Amino acid sequence: MKVQKRSTLFSRPINLYYMLVGSTMALSIFGLIMVFSASSIYSLENKGATWAILFRQLIFLVLALPMAWVLSRFSLARWKFFARFGVLASVGLLAVVQLPGVGKSVNGNNNWISLGFADVQPSEIAKFLMILWAGSILAKRESAGDIQANVLKLIAPAFLLCIFLVLLGKDLGTASVFAFVLAGMLWVSGVHLKLFAAISAVGFLGIAALIISAPYRVARFSVFLNPFAEDQYKSVGWQPAHSLLGLASGGLFGVGLGASRQKWGNLPEAHTDFIFSVIGEELGLFGTIATLLMLSTLLFSIFKIALRTQDPMVRYVCSGIGCWIGVQTVLNIGSAVSVLPVVGVTLPLLSYGGSALIATYMGIAFVIGAARRDPAIYRELEKTGIPKWLR
């Protein structure tokens, strides 16, 4: 008697494609709504209109969507060609920011370039380019059968150079993302557990040294577990304390969309680093759970597509993109709920930030392209009757 396999949501490969595209669009639309809600007061005071920041974010999203459509249709050969220049482009982008008269300081971090109509952060694009390059290098090692090659020597020096350039701009948060992405790609490459543990230990010691080297970082680190301490509350404890107050006041269903009290000047960077707190305050526990489910769906689909692919470069790059989005999610939400020090990174697809949005869409476009090249997914897409240009 033939036993039929039970059909589940994950048994059909095409569902991974739908989950990837659906979660991306849901997060993007939800992000626009929350950016408008979280930024309205700040935007009115600083830009003269409640919708000014929303309009900027919408412009970047409008630019990101056709860009992602084009990139998702790149052939693998074209991606491999561009991957060769990933390090040079990344180092160039990060180095030019440090040139006198070029870089701009925002909140103490000199990792921005002003284009007049908007400020851009080259380090966001460099994240994707470095993952693309590292994936190609690791794939060449695997394809050549050179399993004895020292993976650490292959990709770590270039990542360390990028981290150094980012740290010149005093951006420890972005540097930490680069470091964790490196760790993730080393793990995926199959590096020996003892070596990985040693690398991780050195990395955490390096982060500790950087924290100790700057008094404001020491203060942030010492206060995150108790931001309401009397001697810290009105200084470095202010952001994490009011983030927690916002989350705590949301309850199960929140105070209502647009009704946040913390965004009225109490919570700095409410529309960027602390947008999760506004979500919790306005939409409550259910809103934060829905946000986590959307992000989890996005990450799950990325890693499952990475596991399905036969090409080693695609597998490594997709895994690196998943690590990148996952690490930023953990760092951002960890800061918002005060289980991690405030590191100043955006929540992917939700926080305000054109550079971050464009870079994230570049990464997701690569994964969509990987899904479309999957024979099983492509066959099922053809059966749907969806016009080819929409797939």
TrEMBL record:
Pathway: Cell wall biogenesis; peptidoglycan biosynthesis. One of its GO terms (cellular component) is cell division site. It comes from the Bacteria. Keywords: Cell cycle, Cell division, Cell membrane, Cell shape, Cell wall biogenesis/degradation, Glycosyltransferase, Membrane, Peptidoglycan synthesis, Transferase, Transmembrane, Transmembrane helix. It is an enzyme of class 2 (transferase). Belongs to the SEDS family. FtsW subfamily. This is Probable peptidoglycan glycosyltransferase FtsW. It catalyses: [GlcNAc-(1->4)-Mur2Ac(oyl-L-Ala-gamma-D-Glu-L-Lys-D-Ala-D-Ala)](n)-di-trans,octa-cis-undecaprenyl diphosphate + beta-D-GlcNAc-(1->4)-Mur2Ac(oyl-L-Ala-gamma-D-Glu-L-Lys-D-Ala-D-Ala)-di-trans,octa-cis-undecaprenyl diphosphate = [GlcNAc-(1->4)-Mur2Ac(oyl-L-Ala-gamma-D-Glu-L-Lys-D-Ala-D-Ala)](n+1)-di-trans,octa-cis-undecaprenyl diphosphate + di-trans,octa-cis-undecaprenyl diphosphate + H(+). Its EC number is 2.4.99.28. It is found in: Cell membrane. Its main location: membrane. The keyword Transmembrane helix applies. The chain crosses the membrane at residues 16-42, 48-69, 81-100, 120-139, 151-168, 174-190, 195-216, 283-307, 314-337, 349-371. GO terms for biological process: cell division; cell wall organization; peptidoglycan biosynthetic process; regulation of cell shape. Peptidoglycan polymerase that is essential for cell division. The lineage of its organism: Bacteria, Bacillati, Actinomycetota, Actinomycetes, Candidatus Nanopelagicales. GO terms for molecular function: lipid-linked peptidoglycan transporter activity; peptidoglycan glycosyltransferase activity. It is a multi-pass membrane protein.
